[in-house]
Amino acid sequence: MNASHEPIIAFFTIGLTIIVNNHIKLPKSHLTPVLVQYLRDNLNFFNTEYLIKKRIGISTYQTEKYFKLITEESEHIYIPRGFLNNLLRFCREKQISYKTLDQRKLKLYDYQKKAVDEIGQISGRKKKIGKQITVAMMQSLVKMATIDDLTNQFGTIIIDECHHIPAGVPYLAAGLGPS
Questions:
Q1: The pTM is what?
Q2: Which domains does the chain have, with CATH numbers?
């Protein structure tokens, strides 16, 4: 996979390659006439504002006659991502073979990896302070020997499970820090 997360599609020689990202990307060379007609029929809508203006004699200048949800480039067409289930259903019904490459998973993985690297954790033996977020159990905070040094590193402490504060040890942690 290259740096832009653009998958290599050369190995798919038969069928349709459906690339899902913020939109659906379809190679023009993989489109069948039946699929092209289906996309045109379902992704081009007549603009009723245009019709009303025309019927009452108002200028239709700069009023689109159709809402076209298909965008074309030299080698690909782009359609709304919300149309994915309809497209897959149509391909199954018409027995059009396809491969789906979901690039959203790649982006999600990148964000998750970044989050794991940047979020700190204090529990048991782990004592890693995150750049902006650190997750800790109150019991672990209370047991730390340098609790004053630790609390000076945070602006706000959010306590989850605060209904356990009356239980004793967590009560000590509730008074932590300047926040």
A1: 0.53
A2: 16-109 (3.30.780), 137-174 (no CATH)
